[in-house]
């Protein structure tokens, strides 16, 4: 079986996006009233404090710090579905007694350490193969996944505190890198999850600040393509770009943007793909 080619990404570009989303999270959380840290996020079982605790935990793991032991069977919780979820929840429980101000201080400390480690990482290590949430790929790809994860969680927090991202922010580098990451999984979504038949040509037309066209062609296997070789798409899905990322991440749509989804061509297949968009573990 052929192995997938490794994804080589520009280090300065990805790090600029990652640091930008950390800065945006810092600004969002700075001065947040203690009561707002307890607001429920769109993620089942998690408030704002839990979302930030998860980010702290993941970046701590990437610094080589092991997850704390929880005093309950974390795997038995309804919203915990896999070993990564167990690790995430262990950090959430461990930090649940912290104040918002203390959590923000922890977030700043761990992300500063990570900035230093990433900036000094040699190019060979950046492009080296490693284990990522998307399977074997480069460390650089893993860091683009970190941009996506942190950016998605920023939107979760914004939904909780009712401070949606501006159009300008949604057009920024972190958002674009996050959409790059989501786009890279659309072959998997169309082919494996939605099982689109051979010969399908699926066009995602994204509108708003995250506007772009994403094309997936199914020819033996489903894969991203730049164009359909002059042929028309067999199924078209038109929606706001932010809402596309929300559905791909298994989240409810944002109330701050249009929730309209227009289907074209084979509407039954298009609707089926929309239902199968969530690929995030």
UniProtKB/TrEMBL annotation:
Query: Domain of life, per the record?
Result: Bacteria
Offer an example of a GO molecular function term for this protein: metal ion binding
Q: Does the keyword Isomerase apply?
A: yes
Mycothiol-dependent maleylpyruvate isomerase metal-binding domain residues are: 20-158
Q: Which ranges carry the MDMPI C-terminal domain?
A: 177-271
Q: Which InterPro entries does the protein's record reference?
A: DinB/YfiT-like (IPR034660), Maleyloyr_isom (IPR017517), MDMPI_C-term_domain (IPR010872), MDMPI_metal-binding (IPR024344)
Protein's recorded name: Maleylpyruvate isomerase family mycothiol-dependent enzyme
């Amino acid at each position: 079986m052929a192995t997938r080619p490794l994804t080589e990404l520009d280090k300065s570009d990805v790090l600029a996006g990652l640091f930008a989303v950390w800065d945006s999270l810092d600004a969002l959380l700075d001065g947040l009233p203690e009561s707002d840290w307890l607001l429920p996020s769109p993620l089942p079982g998690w408030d704002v404090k839990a979302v930030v605790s998860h980010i702290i935990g993941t970046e701590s793991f990437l610094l080589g710090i092991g997850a704390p032991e929880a005093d309950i069977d974390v795997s038995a919780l309804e919203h915990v579905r896999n070993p990564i979820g167990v690790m995430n929840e262990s950090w959430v429980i461990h930090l649940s007694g912290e104040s918002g101000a203390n959590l923000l201080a922890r977030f700043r400390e761990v992300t500063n350490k990570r900035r230093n480690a990433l900036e000094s990482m040699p190019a060979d290590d950046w492009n080296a193969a490693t284990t990522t949430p998307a399977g074997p790929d480069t460390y650089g790809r893993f860091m683009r996944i970190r941009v996506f994860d942190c950016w998605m969680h920023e939107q979760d927090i914004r939904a909780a505190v009712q401070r949606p991202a501006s159009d300008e922010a949604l057009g920024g580098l972190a958002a674009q890198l996050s959409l790059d990451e989501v786009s890279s999984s659309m072959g998997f979504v169309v082919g494996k999850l939605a099982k689109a038949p051979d010969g399908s040509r699926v066009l995602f037309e994204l509108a708003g600040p995250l506007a772009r066209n994403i094309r997936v062609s199914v020819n033996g296997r489903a894969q991203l393509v730049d164009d359909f070789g002059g042929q028309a798409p067999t199924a078209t899905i038109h929606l706001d770009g932010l809402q596309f990322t929300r559905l791909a991440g298994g989240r409810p749509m944002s109330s701050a943007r249009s929730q309209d989804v227009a289907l074209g061509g084979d509407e039954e297949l298009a609707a089926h793909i929309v239902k199968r968009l969530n690929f995030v573990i």
